[in-house]
Amino acid sequence: MLKKKEKDVLLKLIENGRKTDKQIAKELNTTQPTVTRIRQKLEKENYILKYYASPAFKKIGMNIIVITIMQWTDYSKTEELKNFIKDIKANNNVICFARGNGLSGRTAFFVSAHKDMKSYEDFIVDIKSRWSKYIREIDQFISSIENVFKPFDHSGAASMALKEE
Questions:
Q1: H helices of the chain, where?
Q2: I need a labelling partner for 147 at 20 to 30 A (CA). Which of 8, 57, 83, 124 fits?
Q3: Tens place of pLDDT for every residue, the chain, 165 residues?
Q4: Which domains does the chain have, with CATH numbers?
Q5: Is 156 helix (H, G, I), strand (E, B) or coil?
Q6: Backbone phi, psi, residue 26, to 5°
């Protein structure tokens, strides 16, 4: 459980990860060494996993976003499942990947971004060619980046959760 000052520092970093400890200290009316200690603690305890820039996909040539929903056939094949998870996590096109339950027995989904339809087709053919033996069903929802009305951004949900604690 985070203390109030730790939550406040984390909220400031969620708001803008580029803020310096000095800026945060000034905004929170505390000292820079205090903020530095809190930030280091948050990093060490994995409250902060990564600092990153959120690119405008269209500007960098990523034109398609795809949600792929699938059903793994046999969970007793644990080694194959571990390798599949490792493979999908390592794929740079994949933005998000999760296992769960839903839609007609589907057991996993991933979100991926691609430059064009050919890039996406190569991506999905590669997955199917290597893993179709273990995947019963696979469905996709494909959209142009231009039709994404709210880009991926976890900061709002994270801020809301911290404020509700």
A1: 4-15, 21-28, 32-44, 78-90, 117-131, 155-164
A2: 124
A3: 899 999 999 999 999 999 999 999 999 999 999 999 999 999 999 999 988 888 889 999 999 999 999 998 888 888 999 999 999 999 999 999 999 988 788 999 999 999 999 999 999 999 999 999 999 889 999 999 999 888 888 888 888 888 886
A4: 4-53 (1.10.10.10), 57-146 (3.30.70.920)
A5: helix
A6: -65, -45
